[in-house]
Model the fold of this input.
Amino acid sequence: MEEGRAERRRRTEAPSCTQGGARRAGIMTDVHRRFLQLLMTHGVLEERGVRRLQKHCYRVHGRTTAVEELEDFINNINSVLESLYIEIKKGATEDDGRPVYALVNLATTPVSKMASDFAENELDLFRKALELIIDSETGFASSTNILNLVDQLKGKKMRKKEAEQVLQKFVQNKWLIEKEGEFTLHSRAILEMEQYIRETYPDAVKTCNICHSLLIQGQSCETCGIRMHLPCVAKYFQSAPEPRCPHCNDYWPHEIPEVFNPDKEREAGTSKANKKPSRSRQH
Amino acid sequence: MLQKPRNRGRPNTQAERERDWARGAAEEAPSTSRGAGGSQEARGTSSQGGRRAEASPEVGPRSQQQLELKVAELVQFLLIKDQKKIPIKRTDIVKHVIGDYKDIFPDLLKLAAERLEYVFGYKLVELEPKSNTYILINTLEPVEEDAEVRGDQGTPTTGLLMIVLGLIFMKGNTIKETEVWDFLRRLGVYPTKKHLVFGDPKKLITEEFVRQRYLEYRRIPHTDPVDYEFQWGPRTNLETSKMKVLKFVAKVHNQDPKDWPAQYCEALADEEARARPETGGPTPSS
Done:
C-alpha cells in the first residue's frame, strides 16, 4: 500500500515530501521520542519544565551538541505529529500568563482523553461544570451550583458527597482549578478543549479582544463589554500611561497586572506552589 | 488546514457518541470508545473535500485523509489503552476504532504500529502468537533520571513486581504462593495487611500483575489447603529478560550474576535465543 511505503521511507531516510502535498515532516530521533513519552506523562507542563525535559532528553542520549531552540524543537516534532492529528500546543495560564504546553488532540471531540479516566456520570458532571463556567460572568462556577445538578447526571446515580470527591479528582488531574469554593477551567482543559467548546457553545463562548482565543477568566470593559485575558491586558497596557479600552476608548477601570517575567521569578526564588494567588473579581 | 470531524446537521449524534464513549469507559477498563460513530464522522468530514486515493482499489472509495484519521485514532487508542497496562484485544480495537474499516484492519494496524514506533518509540507486539491481544513495548531504555521529569509517579509497584519476578526465576521458573509470602513477610509485606505503598499486596500480585500479564497464577491440583503457583507471564518475557532480572537480583545481594551458575547459564541461553533473528514483526493474524 502506497502509504506503507511512504511511512517506511520516512522512518529510515531524511525527511521527504509526504503524500499530503508540500509539507515536510521532520525527523524523529530517540531524543524526540523520549521527550514525547515523558511529556505525555504530564497533562500540561510549564515552559520551565518543558525546557528541563528537553535538556534531560539530550543528556540521556549523549548529545553534547547544542540543544535545539525550544520553539524549533517543538515545531519539528509537531510537523511529524501532524499526520496523527495531534500537536504540542502552547498556551498561557489565564491568571498570570505563564507559558504552558500540552499534547492535544486535533481531530476528536470533547473529553476523549478524559473518557479513559472517568466514568460516564463523572464525565457528565464535568460537562455540567463546564457549562456553568462558560455561562458565568466571572469564569467561575460555585461548588454549590455544580452539586445541585447531580440529579441530572447521566449514568449511575451520584450523591453530592461523591460528586465533591469527583470534583477534587478533576482538580488533581488538572482539568479544573479551585479557588475559594469555586471552580474554573485549568489551562490543560482550555488547551485541550478550546475547539470543542467553541463548537458546542458558540453563543455563550467568550473570546479575548486581543489574542482572539477562548476566554474563561479576564477583565471586561464596563462600557462596551469587550473582554481581555489578564496577561493580554498586562501586555497591551504595559507602557500605557492611561489605560483605555481598545474598542470604545473609555477609561479602563481595572488594575493592570504585571507581565509575566520568568527571570524575575527565578531570582525571587518563589515557586508557584508556595504563592497563594490573590483572587480578584474583575468583572 | 486539518479538517476535523464535524457534526453535520445531526444534533444528537455528538451527545450519543459521548454517551457511547462514556459507557465504553464505564463498562470496561478505560477505552476511548468511539463506537461506529467514529468512522461515520470521518466519512462525513471527508465528503467535504478530502483528497481521494487513486491508487488503491481494495480500500474502496475512502479518501487518504479518512485513512490518515483512522490511523490517528488507532494510535491514540493504543496509547491510552496501554497506559493502563492492560493488553489490548483485537476485538476491542475493531469495536471501538475500526468500525466499518474492518476490511483493511491489518493494513491500518500495520500503519499504526509503524507510526507508534517511529514517533513515540513504542513497539506494538502480540502478547503471544495467535492470541490477538497486543501490548506496547518501549524501545527506549528507561533511565533513573526519567523519574525526575515525569508527570506521573511512574509505578511504585514495579519494585514489588521485580522482587516477585526474581523469586520466580531463582526458584527455577515456578514458585508456590506460600513461598512468595514467606519471603515477602520478611520485607514487611503481608497478604492480609494493607501496605502503605502497595495497598493490597495480595490483590496486586494475584490479580493486577496477572491481569497485566506479568505473572501467571495457577492452582496446584490436589493440594489441601489449596495452593497456587506463580510463573512469568507473557508480558514479562517481552519487556524484560532472565539476564536483566538476574542482574537485578545480584545487585540487591551486592553480588555478581555469575555467583548463581545455574541461573546464569539459563540467562545466557535465553540471551542467545533472543539474539537470533525474529521470525516476524507485530503483524496481526488476520
About this structure: Chain A has a mean pLDDT of 84. Residues 30-84 of chain A form a domain with the Aspartate Aminotransferase, domain 1 fold (CATH 3.90.1150.220). Chain A has three domains: 30-84, 112-204, 205-261.
